[in-house]
Amino acid sequence: MDGMMINTKRSTQEILQEEMLRERAAVLARAGERLSQAMEKLHTLERDIEAAMTAEQAGEVLNEAGRSGASKTESVQAGGTEDRRGFLQRLNAKIHAYNLQRDQVRIRFYYLIVTREAMGMIHHQRLEEMYRIPPKKRLLPEKGKFPKRGEAQEGSST
Q1: pLDDT for 61-106, tens place per residue?
Q2: C-alpha span between 154 and 148 (Å, rounded)
Q3: DSSP labels for 70-87?
Q4: Alpha-carbon distance 69 to 46, whole Å?
Q5: Which residues lie closer than 8 Å to 6 by C-beta, 6 or more apart?
Q6: 96-147 residue pLDDT tens
Q7: Which of 15, 100, 110, 154, CA to CA, is 20 to 30 A from 3?
């Protein structure tokens, strides 16, 4: 063993190859993190919409700050049509924001797929299972019957 010496020095090519692998991993991690952040924002918007719908169906009218206000009976006596219209406008604004964020999620998902493919990864089924993108939500009509929870909320998946 005296005559055998292990070469611990790495060649320039090995060092560059290692740096390239680290950079590829970092790029992939950033793309995944951006997608995760976009998905979390989408889920937050979805929870806000669900909370507003639940409050409406429970008979509460939400004010601008999203806090419970008067009951439906009280709001009808005090010009409830305007309260309801305002509520629906605010809810539709949240739905619109949700749909815009959903589009951002789709873009981030696409970027992650492109990044993976550029690195030679061609199987994406697990990603599609992990990052299921929900369908768009339809805006609610400002007149007519308020839909029941889950009813007429989901739109097309485009």
Answers
A1: 544 444 445 444 444 444 466 688 889 999 999 999 999 999 999 9
A2: 12
A3: EEHHHHHHTTHHHHHHHH
A4: 22
A5: none
A6: 999 999 999 999 999 999 999 999 999 999 999 999 999 999 999 977 555 5
A7: 15
Measured distance CA(2)–CA(139) in Å, rounded: 79
Domains of the chain, residue spans = 13-130
Is the pTM above the cut of 0.85? Answer: no
- Cα–Cα distance between 90 and 153 in angstroms, integer? 15
| 3-class secondary-structure state, position 154 | strand
CB 134 within 8 A of CB 45: no
Determine the 3-state secondary structure of 51 from DSSP. helix
> How would you label 21-50 residue by residue, b for 16+ Cβ within 10 Å and e otherwise?
eeeeeeebeebbebbeebbeebeebbebbe
